[in-house]
Design goal:
The protein has helices spanning 102-110, 112-121, 132-136, 145-184, 290-298, 300-308, 321-324, 334-370, and strands at 5-7, 12-14, 27-30, 36-38, 52-55, 59-61, 74-76, 82-85, 90-94, 139-141, 192-194, 199-201, 212-216, 232-235, 240-242, 247-250, 261-263, 273-275, 279-284, 311-312, 317-318, 328-330. It has 377 residues and is of the alpha+beta class. A 4-stranded antiparallel β-sheet has the order 2-9-6-7, with helices on one face. It has a 4-stranded mixed β-sheet with strand order 4-3-8-5, with no helix packed on it. A 4-stranded antiparallel β-sheet has the order 12-19-16-17, covered by helices on one side. The longest helix has 40 residues, at 145-184.
């Protein structure tokens, strides 16, 4: 152990507050993204006095680690002054903020090394538990409070820039979607055509098994934007195939219902990449704007049509691509399509640039977290 590493138990203490007064407080839970989220639990008939109260700058974590894969559910609460959490979570707080900054500690909890440590130290037969004693036995570097705050400030500058870019991306996408709806959806016409006149689904592309290619997972698609968050190199063993300017639509529940759709713009020119078998690849036909295809795929009317066609078991239902080709929509004239393509192109390019910037910032943030292990006064 490095001499500047300290036992965490010296700096933290459990919080035992109960909701005895049955206060009208928001109910929150924890996600594996290490954030507090609004709880969707049905509390009708539940004795709310058993719930715990958590306050600003306090932590909570789920001690059962065997159900969350590689991630530990732990987060710092900063959303409200107070909230309620289930008794399944263990709330705790830093004893003295002059000795240990809560945000610095949360940075340590975000490290993948902490997740691996907590899983290794978990024990039990039916379910594995990372108990309070093991949390207290965690060792980490605790430099001077001045150094801690410098590190937190640097981290927050990066995080705030990422959040600002995400807001801009959302606004850009909302603009493109609003233009699409005004020009192609919100008008009456009897001249209708099937979608297969404008797109082809799952086009055939040359990519032999065993060839090394970029691969995109379902997890790389966002529910709120077109951005594809990362890709990995692997040998092609089957699945969807696509190029730049294709749209990837999730065909399964709940991914389709949640809006998972990606616009491919992170490949080299003429590169063929691979992806999940649960993608439907939508490609614009000649004289059709690829930006129009993506906006159509995100439109609620089209998504409702797709969801209505889902078939399969109760565990996982799927949409068939040929059904999507039968979607009926107003006929689009060539001039209108060309005008939309020119209008949308700079919007999509700005989204691409901001997405690339965020990828670089995420790598910088991960680097900063990795360096915590070597931090000294």
């Amino acid at each position: 152990m490095r001499k500047h590493y300290k036992r965490l138990g010296k700096y933290i203490q459990p919080v035992v507050g109960r909701n005895n007064d049955l206060g009208d407080l928001p109910l929150v839970g924890l996600s594996i993204q290490k954030k507090f989220i609004p709880s969707i639990a049905n509390t009708i008939g539940t004795d709310m006095s058993t719930y715990r109260i958590i306050e600003k700058n306090q932590f909570a974590y789920g001690p059962v680690t065997s159900r969350n894969g590689d991630k530990i559910t732990i987060a710092l609460f900063n959303d409200f002054d107070k909230a309620l959490i289930s008794q399944a979570y263990i709330p705790f707080e830093v004893k003295d903020n002059i000795e240990l900054d809560p945000e610095y500690l949360m940075m340590w909890f975000r490290r993948p090394e902490f997740d691996r440590y907590a899983r290794f130290k978990s024990h039990g037969s039916a379910r594995e538990i990372f108990d309070w004693d093991e949390m207290c036995n965690t060792l980490l570097p605790i430099p001077s409070i001045t150094k801690q705050r410098e590190i937190v400030k640097e981290y927050n500058v990066i995080q705030n820039r990422i959040a600002l870019n995400q807001q801009l991306i959302q606004k850009l996408e909302e603009t493109a979607q609003a233009i699409y709806r005004e020009w192609f959806v919100e008008f009456e016409t009897d001249d209708k055509v099937f979608l297969k006149e404008y797109i082809e689904t799952n086009p055939r592309l040359e990519l032999k098994k065993g060839m090394l290619s970029n691969y995109i997972e379902m997890a790389n698609l966002s529910e709120i934007s077109m951005c594809i968050n990362g890709k990995v190199k692997r040998e092609y063993q089957g699945g969807s195939r696509f190029r730049n300017n294709d749209t990837l639509l999730a065909r399964i529940t709940p991914c389709l219902e949640n809006g998972k759709t990606g616009f491919v713009n992170n490949l080299e020119e003429n590169e063929v990449a691979a992806g999940s078998t649960e993608f439907i690849v939508m490609r614009a036909k000649r004289k059709v704007s690829p930006f129009w295809v993506y906006c159509l795929a995100k439109d609620q009317g089209f998504r409702s049509y797709a969801i209505s066609s889902m078939i399969g078991s109760s565990g996982r239902q799927r949409v068939h691509e040929k059904y999507l080709e039968e979607f009926l929509l107003p006929k689009v004239n060539t001039e209108q399509m060309e005008k939309f393509d020119k209008t949308a192109k700079p919007i999509f390019e700005n989204v691409r640039l901001k997405s690339n910037e965020n990828q670089n910032l995420m790598e910088l943030k991960d680097l900063l977290l990795s360096k915590l292990a070597a931090v000294e006064n």
